[in-house]
Amino acid sequence: MSIAPFGRRALPVIANDEVGAYRVLRVADPDGPAPDAGQFTMLASVEHWGGGADERPLLARAFSVARYADGEAHYLLEDVGPGTRRLCELRQGELVWALGPLGRGFTDPADGRRPLLVGGGIGIAPLAILQDQLRGGTALLGFRDARHAAGAALLSDPRIATDDGSAGHHGLVTDLLAAELDGAGAGGEGGAVVYACGPPPMLEAVRAMCAQAGVECQLALEAAMACGFGACFGCAVPKRGGGYVRVCVDGPVVAGELLDRVEDPGAGAPLAALAAESP
Fold first, then answer.
1. What three-state secondary structure class fits 62?
2. What is the mean pLDDT of each run of 10 residues along the chain (279 residues)?
3. Residue 263 is assigned to a structural domain of this protein
4. I need a labelling partner for 80 at 20 to 30 A (CA). Which of 181, 192, 212, 255 fits?
5. Which domain holds residue 53?
6. What does the alpha-carbon distance between residue 119 and residue 137 come to, in Å, rounded to a whole number?
7. CB-based contacts of 140: which residues, under 8 Å, 6+ apart?
8. pTM of the model
């Protein structure tokens, strides 16, 4: 597991590229440790990071690392509130505060197991770097519509589902997963491992399907975050048999078998997108 250096770093923006309904924020981070797939970073702009007429400071936002190579980190953004809107406005040469990589990422599949990468919306972000690190993996991605489905370009050879049928399969990404799990050899030795990130209803469906099929699954959970270090307990979610998982330090990636179900914490967006959008 990669460990973040103490303190946040002021990093220059290289580019902020439009990708359909999303943006890919690219920052130079040559001295930061290379993240593991599934880890996240707390981001905030150095300038004009506040809300309201008095520019009251906002909390940093938690974003999964979407790609890391040659000292450059990529983050997938969507404008859904004041914090993400400011990050979407950043331009080349501006500075962003970065604290990370944080949390526990995905674990490589055991020998012979086939990785299935299942993403929903902006939750595709950690699956892009995972596919890079695994040098492959079947990508099954679900989106609201064709404009959002443009984000699928972050991964290689993805199969796409959209809610409105404007791109790929008309339906849910779990329809695509069901077809894979129904295939021969999905469970058991030499079968598949499912890696998933997306909104809670999607993750719960993935968890339940994998449990029924006897397939290992690793879920990158959503939660509202304030600190990223496990100190505030704002991101705690209940686990099977009692107790809690702090998403920021015990996760964000947890084994599906640790949960009775994936509950919607009410944050309103995936971990890959943001922490709570309130100041």
1. strand
2. 81 98 97 93 93 75 95 96 94 96 94 93 97 96 98 98 97 96 62 95 96 95 80 84 88 94 60 39
3. no
4. 255
5. 9-102
6. 12
7. 116, 117, 118, 119, 158, 159, 161, 173, 176, 177, 180
8. 0.90
